[in-house]
Amino acid sequence: MKTIRLREGKERSALRSHPWIFDSAIAKGGADSGETVRVESHSGSFLGWAAFSPSSKIRARIWSFDEAQRIDAAFFEMSVKRAIAARSRFDIQSNGLRLISGGTDNHLVLVDVTSFGIGGKVAEKALEHCGVTVNMNMIPFDTRKPMDPSGIRIGSPALTTRGMGADEFRRIGQWIATALKSYEDATTLSRIRNEIRELTNHFPVPASGLATVGAEN
Q1: What's the predicted TM-score (pTM) here?
Q2: Which of 19, 121, 204, 216 is most buried per CB count within 10 Å?
Q3: Which of these, 157, 128, 163, 123, lies nearest to 139 by C-alpha position?
Q4: pLDDT by residue for the chain (217 residues), tens digit each?
């Protein structure tokens, strides 16, 4: 198994379970594209197993922080099953919204919001106030106008990239439903925004590491 060793002080993100390793953080080591590597701190202690990407600024993406984890076909099968379970726990339907799509064929979830007496335009604005970015979207056989359709489109990669899992998906689904039920209640929307800010503080955006890259150059 090939190894990459990080520069001193560059292991902090990995120690916080952050999955991305930028090229500037690596002191030595490398591998072919897609090859699994062992990620070590500057002192040689284990940090994670990662997929190596020699042509990307994000040079490695950590698969697992468990040193005993075998990265094999069974691991990837387990990961896919966990992702499917996380999607199913978005808790959209149980909160009174109709799910139009959202299987495992892609990362998108299309939701009909008209059961709350609103359209996609109002839903998009209400969620934007809470700090949740979605897009208004027409649903099949939509009777509303394109500029205020019946649905919203939700994507999951921005959440999983930050390391969020099933529990976070469940909370976000509940926040979405509450915000749409209370779209005219500024107090409720502000409360949700503060709660979301508190959650995201524990899951920083991976690209924040680019600021460090720029500062070093």
Answers
A1: 0.62
A2: 19
A3: 123
A4: 899 999 999 988 888 878 889 999 999 999 999 899 999 999 999 999 999 999 888 899 898 899 998 888 888 888 777 766 666 666 676 677 888 865 555 667 889 999 999 999 999 999 999 999 999 999 999 999 999 999 999 887 778 777 787 788 889 989 999 999 999 999 999 999 999 999 988 887 765 544 444 444 4
Extended strands (E) in 74-209 = 98-101, 108-112, 135-137, 151-155
Give the chain's radius of gyration (CA, Å): 20
Domains of the chain: 2-71 (2.30.130.10), 80-200 (3.90.1150.10)
Q: Which single residue is written with the structure tokens 């969020």?
A: 164
The number of beta carbons lying within 10 Å of the beta carbon of residue 5 is 19
* C-alpha–C-alpha distance, residues 92 and 156, integer Å: 13
Both structure tokens of 20: 């991305």
